[in-house]
């Protein structure tokens, strides 16, 4: 384990932090990139010399032909969407995608999962809506926890697949009937499964020997998380969460990596904050500043197209996230979006029922929390042409250094635009 070279990339806000571009940068010389949780509800934007891509389930190392990309046991996979995504990548990039593999333990999103996802969300009271992408991720994880799931390995054994589906399908059809939705026959599901086996059968593998060898040989491995800790099923704003654990610890479990193998944890955050979906979001803006952040930052969901909720940087939540993930390096994205703001605010505490909180409380208290802000003078200069720390305006440097103090974590990457070369690498002390 002495040669371990495993790095994790995780979101430290509500998701949509810019993890795709950070993974794309780090993956240029990676041996393995592993998506360790979630499904095709990710929206990792990658811009490179081949074009602009919104990756939903495919790992962000796909553009390096020398990198092996793994969709791990901790994920849930929609094989139809994966096939569409690969076809799109091949069409736009003019490359052949043959470096993506699926762990045989990954659970499969089936048609009834997607149907039930939308129906269950529709039944929730407006105040309790989660903001699901309706892609079947939650219901698939429910089946996983209930030991009623179908795994990628089952595609390779028709007899076992029929037994598993025959056991679970009657209940799923009863659930569909309850919501007044069409049901599915065993033959309909089997037909889809045969098609998926034809498409991906040779790329469904046991990844444990591959990953273990890579760890023990000191090969460069990147763990790619989806969403951020504020949507973590244990440590996020429950119940407005995803159904998995998008933390560095979740990366170990999902990817099959021993915890002591992780070398560095790259936390990714925007220079402000955004959220898609329901639940408390303490710094949310409903004024012109919020609209300005959305417009300049093009804050619309890659997966859903929904306008993102926008707000100031929440240093309390970020400090919590850095601690929980063991972040060694913070990557601050979209600093350029703040170029034309004369005044910037950072949340440094909360007021809850007349009491001051310097830490992030549980969801019920977050719902009543009012942000306490520190204010900073904006730099009112263009940062998009900066390529090193010294190129940034002095007031921009000061803002970043103050964030660093608040979150007690070095900020070692700063993006000033979406292109690959618009990433400043800083050796923070």
Mean pLDDT: 93
Low-confidence stretches: none
Sequence of strands across the biggest β-sheet? 9-7-5-2-10-1-11-15-19-20
* Total count of strands: 20
Percent range for helical residues? 25-40%
CATH first level of the largest domain: Alpha Beta
End-to-end separation: 27 Å
| Largest sheet features | 10 strands, mixed
Number of helices, counting only DSSP H or I runs of 4 residues or more: 12
| CATH fold assignment of the largest domain | Adenylosuccinate Synthetase, Chain A, domain 1
In CATH terms, what is the architecture of the largest domain? 3-Layer(aba) Sandwich
Structural class: alpha/beta
Strand proportion, as a percent range, falls in: 15-25%
Going by CATH, the homologous superfamily of the largest domain would be: Adenylosuccinate Synthetase, subunit A, domain 1
Radius of gyration, in angstroms, nearest whole number: 22 Å
Whole-number tally of structural domains: 3
Shape: globular
Description:
This protein has helices spanning 19-26, 79-93, 111-123, 137-145, 158-178, 186-200, 208-216, 248-255, 288-297, 315-325, 363-366, 394-407, and strands at 6-11, 32-35, 44-48, 51-55, 68-71, 76-77, 100-103, 107-108, 204-205, 221-228, 262-270, 273-275, 309-311, 313-314, 329-333, 343-352, 355-357, 370-377, 411-415, 423-425. With 429 residues, it is α/β, with parallel strands linked by helices. It folds into three domains: 6-104 and 206-266, 3-Layer(aba) Sandwich (Adenylosuccinate Synthetase, Chain A, domain 1); 107-201, Adenylosuccinate Synthetase, subunit A, domain 2 (Orthogonal Bundle), CATH 1.10.300.10; 269-425, Adenylosuccinate Synthetase, Chain A, domain 3 (Alpha-Beta Complex), CATH 3.90.170.10. A ten-stranded mixed sheet has the order 9-7-5-2-10-1-11-15-19-20, with helices on both faces. Strands 14, 16, 17 and 18 form a four-stranded mixed sheet that branches. The longest helix is centred in the middle third of the chain and has 21 residues, at 158-178. The mean pLDDT is 93.
